Amino acid sequence: MNLEQLTQRCGEWLRGTGPESDIVISTRIRLARNLASFPFNNRASAFQKAEIEAHLRDRIGRLDLTPRLDYLTLPTLSTLDRQMLVERQLISRELALADGPRGVAVGPLETVSLMILEEDHLRMQVMHSGLALDASWQEIDRIDDLVEQKVSYAFSPEFGYLTACPTNVGTGMRASVMLHLPALEFTKQLEKVFRALQKINLAVRGLYGEGSRASGHFYQISNQVTLGKNEPTILAEIAGVIPQIIAYERGARTAWLRDNRQGLQDKVSRAYGTLGSATMMTSEETMELLSFVRLGIHLGLVEDISIHTVNELFIHTQPAHLQKLVGSPLDGEERNAARARYLRTRLREARPNPN
Amino acid sequence: MKCQQCDNPATIHLTDIVQNKKREIHLCRPCAEARNLVEKAELNLPAVLQTFLGQHVGQQMEELARLACPVCGIRYMEFRAQGRLGCPHDYEVFQAGLEPLLQRIHRHVRHVGKAPRRAADCGKPAELIEMRRQMQAAIDDERYEEAARIRDLLRERDDRDES
Predict the structure, then answer these.
(1) Residue B45 pLDDT
(2) Which residues have a Cβ under 8 Å from the Cβ of B76 and sit 6 or more positions away?
(3) How far is A104 from A100, CA to CA, in rounded Å?
(4) How far apart (Å, rounded) are the C-alpha atoms in residues A209 and A190?
(5) Cα–Cα dist A181/A219, whole Å
(6) Nearest residue of chain B to residue A48 (CA atoms)
(7) Distances B158 to A57, A60, A134, B132 between C-alpha atoms, Å
């Protein structure tokens, strides 16, 4: 896998297509699995971890999957490359920052990634643009079946798939849907929605998962319960609330347009203008402003930029992507200047020629 | 002071006055949350787990505190401190301590979802984990002959799991 080419592309989660993609950014399902005859990761010696990695890498390499997965050995990658994979949602921060043997097998379309020696021996993930819980489940279920033919999973009939942390035991499944909710956030109605979700045991997290801030008004809704409910039930619970949240967000957008069209138009235009003219830009501010431009495009308030360009800018202005695109490591101030320069150039190119 | 709903320590203390009558309420956080008296803390799984870990055991604690897994060697107290188990066998060894925890996290204690088609032989994987631990201990103590002997045994026993 060529990481330089990867950096240029938009990646699966920001492809911007699929059902309800004006609000639903992406759908992701991951399964946690462990080998039956090894201790869990935190109890394994360096030698045992090397054995686990070799064992899983070998079996995954021989899976009957098309297209084939590419294997990346994490310790051989630079910090920047590992960070880049985190930004693309192909690996977790935990895997990027861990020590010792570990790796990830990634499909060329970036829809599949199998992490080896994360918190569990194996964390398998399928990700699709838009709302795609069923399709994602079918795909991950099939991959799990294929892996199971080649390895013995730690499983007990009572507790299901056994995981290092009891919060994942049972199905080992975490399904999450990432939503773009600028209108609900701006009109301060999010708290209400989140409280309702927590009552039915669904968790809400920011863009990059546990403990991260919800930058760019992106939120992930996921199941908290993994034991005592089967996979279709868990997925149906998530699928059941998403249309309501989409309806709330659409309602908030419509009301905002109706009550204060000029104010909203101004907010979007200022965001667009700032992105195209500022000389220093933090990652956080970029996310916030791109979020309003994205909203503006979907409401017909901005016309000379495509959603594809905005999605690409979301990923390309992340710290590691930016440094890879610029071709040199940059520290804080330099990076903010380079980010602003990159945005100005890209937005100038994106606009149609005034003549 | 104990929670008025359960035996956990009360951490939420409320006083309200209705028609000039003062009423005091003393609850632990989960009971207060259940009655919507306080806002739920943001759901962050490790934090949630730590809270659960601190609360659920109580009287069983002394017994559990002495437990260690014969397969991987982890002590129950280490699990409590780290929030991570040491091997699949721990679910059996620490069952008494884990079930109340699972009940609180998942509101269930039994799996009902997908199962692997091939049923693993229950005893063997645990035995292999134990052998791996003995081999590691031999390496750490520089007893290399012993380590090599266990390694060869492992190779023999672990015909690796392919069908």
Answers:
(1) 56
(2) B64, B65, B66, B67, B68, B94, B97
(3) 13
(4) 18
(5) 7
(6) B132
(7) 18, 19, 37, 11
* Residue of B72, B74, B125 lying closest to A36 (CB–CB): B125
Residue B121's Cβ-side half-sphere holds a number of Cα atoms within 13 Å equal to 10
CA nearest neighbour of A143 among A170, A177, A106: A106
Torsional class of A219: left (φ above 0), alpha (ψ -120 to 50), beta (otherwise): beta
Residues in a beta bridge with A345? none
Amino acid, single-letter form, for residue A73? T
The pLDDT of A202-219, averaged and rounded, is: 75
- Distance in angstroms (rounded) separating the CA atoms of residues B69 and B86: 8
pLDDT tens digits, A160-182: 999 999 999 999 999 999 999 99
Q: How far apart are CA B86 and CA B79, in angstroms?
A: 8
- List the single residue in B with minimal CA-CA distance to A194: B42
ipTM: 0.87
Query: Is the Cβ pair A170, B106 closer than 8 Å?
Result: yes
**Phi/psi of residue B21, each to 5°?**
-105, 130
Which amino acid is it at A309?
A: T
Sheet of strand A122-129: strand arrangement? A70-73, A103-106, A112-116, A122-129, A24-33, A173-180, A218-223, A202-205
Chain A, residues 203-232, CB within 8 A of chain B, namely: 203-204, 210-211, 224-231
Taking the C-alpha atoms of residue A325 and residue B122, their distance in angstroms, rounded to an integer, is 51
Interface check A164 vs B, CB under 8 A = yes
> Looking at residue B163, what is its pLDDT?
38
d(CA A309, CA A10): 9
CA distance linking residue A174 with residue A226, whole number of Å: 7
* Binary contact (B44, A160; C-beta < 8 A): no
- Evaluated on CA atoms B108, B112, B116, B118, the torsion sign reads positive
